[in-house]
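PROTOCOL LOG
Step 1. Enter all chains and additional molecules of the complex.
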Amino acid sequence: MTFRQPGWLLVLPATLAVAMFLGIPVFDTFSTTFTDSTGFLSNYEKFFASRFRRAVLWRTTEIALITMIASLLIGFATAYVVSRAPKKLKSLLIIIAVFPLLTGVVVRSFAWLVILGKNGILNQILLSVGVIAEPLSMLYTEGAVIVAMVYLFVPLMILTIVGVLEGIPEDLLQASASLGATPFATFWQVVFPLAMPGLIVGAVLVFTGSFTSYATPQLLGGEQQMMMGTFLRQRAMVTFDWTGASTIAAIMTVVTIIIVLAMGRVARRLNPAAV
Amino acid sequence: MLTRPHPVLIGFACLVFFFLLAPLVIIIGASVSDTSFLTFPPQGLTLHWYENIFEVSAFKRTMVTSFILAVTGTSLSLIVGIPAAYALNRYRVQLPSFLSTVFVLPILVPEIVLGFSLMKTVTTAMGFPIFVSLVIGHALLVLPYCVRVVSAALSSFDFSIEEAAVSLGCPRWKAFFIIVLPNVRAGVIAAFILALITSINDVSISLFLTGPGISTLPIQLLAHMEQFFDPTIASVSVLLMLVTVGVMAVVELTLGLTFLTK
Amino acid sequence: MKALLTSSVLFFALSAGVAQAKDTFTISWWGYNGEKLNANIIEPFKAMCDCDIEFETGNNADRLNKLVVRKGEGIDVIFLTDSYSQIGVEKNIFQKVDRAKVPNIEKLYDLAQAPQGEYGPAYSIGRVSIVYDADKVAPITSWNDLWREDLANSVTLPGITTTAGPMMVLRGAAHAGVDAYTDTDGAFAAIEEMKPNIVKNYNTGSEMVNLISTGEASVAVAQDFTFASLTAAVPSMVNATLTDGDIATLNTINIPTGAKHVDLAHKFINFVLSTEVQTIEAKQGVDAPVNKDVVLTPEEAAIWTYGPEAISSLNRVDYGKLNAAKVDWIDRWNEIFGS
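Step 2. Run joint prediction.
Step 3. Record the structure below.
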C-alpha cells in the first residue's frame, strides 16, 4: 500500500497546528506594528533611532552569541566524553547532566546570586585564599548574566548532542580506525560531520533561548544590563504599550531567524545531510 | 571497542559536571537554612521551609495542574511532531526546505508575545476554554523540541533498513514502529524529556493563558518570590529534584538504566 | 500512550464545563497570605452570599493586562494598587461604584473614600519611605539625604516599573526644586546626580529585601509592608523619620465593566471595608486599615500607617498626571541606568 504524497500527509497536522495557533495570532500582533503607527515603518524607525534601544539590541545579540559558543564548546566536549563512557556510567552521567534543567530557570539563576554576591561564596573563597583584599562586585554585570546563561544551557546542549552521537553507528568508527585513521582524524572527519545536525539543533535552541531570555537577565543583570527580553516585558506590562512591545518582538524574531538561517548555511557546507 | 577520550578531555568533563552540580548543592543547603533569606552556607538548620510548601495551598494545587498540562501538551506535540520529523528526513527531496524552519517558529517568537497573541486570538476571539488553550499553548511551545531533536536523531538513521523491511513485505506503518522508532529511541526520549521540562518550567506563555481557577506551579513560585525571597523556593526545587530522582528510579526498574543508550 | 490519550480526553471533557449549582463569584487579587484572607474574608463571605468563589492571582501588571485584553470581562472584583487602578480607569474597564450600596465607605478616612472619583474606594493604605541599616549608616532625616556622599554605592531604589519607581522622579524634582511635570530635565538631572550612590534598582519587594539582607545595599526606598521581613533579616534596619513626609500608596478595589454579579460585588466591597474585617486584617499583619473605627494597640499599629496624624502627613501622588508622563519617564530612566 503506497500513499500519495506521503511526506505532505505526515507533516500536515503539525504544519496546520503551527499555522492556526501561531501563524494567525502572531501575524495579527505583528501587523499592529505597521498599522498602529504614524507611518508604515514608523515604529521601527523610532526603535533604531534611540541610542538606548540600539544598545539593548547589540548587548542581547552579543550575550546570546557568547553563550551559544561557550555552550557549544563545553557541551560538545562533555557530550563526547559521555558518549564514550561505559554503558552504566553513561546513563548516570546523562541523568546528572539533565538534572539542573529540572530545577527551573528562576531557581538556578538564584543560585548564582548566592555565589556571585558581595557576601557570596566566590568572594568568600577568594578573600580567604588572599587573591583579593576587597569583595568583588560581580553581580549586575554582563559577565554574571553570561555565566548564569551558560549554566542554564549547557545541559540542554549536552542532551541534544548525546542524542545525536548515540545515533552514530559503532561500526563506522571501527571502520575508520581499522583503515588507519588517527583518533583525531576519526573525530574530525567522521564524528564531527555526523554530529552536525545535533550541534545545529543545540546551537539554535541555545541562541534563541538566550536571546529571548527574561528571568536570568532580570535577576542577574537588572536595569544596568537591560536585554531585549526584559525591555519587552517593561514595554508590555508597565507601559501597556503593546505596539511598542510587538515592535521589539518583531525585531527579535527577525534577528533570530537571520542567525538561524546563517547557521543552517554553515552547517550545510560542513555536512550536506544537516537539516 | 570504545576509544577512550584524551585524559584532558575527561578532566574537563569532570570540571563541567562539578560546575553543573555545585549550584544545586547550594540550593539544597540554602533550603535548610534557618534564615528568612537565601544564603549559603546555611546558618542554622531547619526543615521549616519544607513544611511551608504544604502550607501554601497554591503550590499543591498547581503542581498537579502543571504536571498534567506538561504530559498532555508534550504527548500532543509528539503525536504531530514525530511524523513531521520522519517526513522531513525521509521525504527531504519532495518537501520544501523552509518547512523545517516552520517548526522552530515557536522558539523564535518571544514567549511573552506568543502568550499574549494566543490569549487574544485563541482564548478571546476563538473562545476556547482555559485549560484547552493552555494545552494548545504548551504543545506549541514544545513542538520545536519534538520535531527538531527527533529529526536530528533520524538524520543519522539509515533508511535502507526500513526499505529492506518493506521490500520483504512489512507494511510501511508497521516498519515505522518496529524498525525506525526503536533505532531513534534516544532522540525521542531526549525530546520528551526536554519538552516535559520546558512545559513544567514555562512562565511566559502560561502567564497569559491561565485564568480564574487555573494556574501553574512556576507562576505561583514567581508570585511567591515577588513577595517572599525566602528559602521556600529552594525547598520546592529540592522537592522537584527528589521527584525526578524518583521518576528515574522507576524508569531504571522497568526499562533498565540503559534505556538512554544502545 | 493509550493511557495518556484517555486521560487527556477525560480532562478535556471535565474542563469543558461542569454544570455548577451555585453562582461563582470571581475575585482578582495578588494571592499573598492566602490562608489568612481565606479565613477572614472568603469563608465568611461565602456563607453570606451562598456562592462559590474563584480567584485569578498575579501581580498588578499581569492581571490588569489580562483584564484589558478580555475587555473587562471574567472578573467581578479586582484588587489593584492605585497607580494601576488609575490605568484601569483611563482604559474604561471599570464601572462606577454605587456609594449607596456600600455604606461602610462613610467610615473611611477621607483620602480612602474616593481616590479615583466615582470608581472603587481604597481598602488599605501604605507608605513609601527610606529604610537604612543604623549600624552602617548615619541617620537619615530627609529625602535629600539620599544624595549624601557617604552613601556611595549603598543605595537601592525601586525600579521605574515598580509602584514606587516614578515617585523617585518626583523626589528628584523636589531635590532640584522644580516641578517634575514641567521641568522633567531638571528632575532627571537630579536622579543622575544620585547615580554614584546606587548599587542596583530593584523590581520586586523581595529583591530589595535580598539586597539588604546580603549586604549589597544598606539604604533602600521601600514600601512599609516589607519592613517586617527587613528587620527579620537585618535587625538594625530602621525606618527613617522624614521631615518632608512619606509618600502614600493606596490599594483599591474596583468592579470591572463586564462583571456578572454587580450587586454581590458591592456587597463584597462593603464587607471588606467593614470594621470587623479591617480590624482582623490589621491585627494579623495582612493590610493596614483605612476604616476610622478600627482600634489597634501600639504594638499592632507600629508596622502600619495608622491614625489620623500619620495619614494626614503623607504626600499624595496625582496619578492622572503621573500616568501621562510615565512613558517618557521610563525612557529617560532607561537612558540613565541602562546604557
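Step 4. Note key features.
Chain A touches chain B through 106 residues (CB under 8 Å).
The mean pLDDT of chain A is 83.
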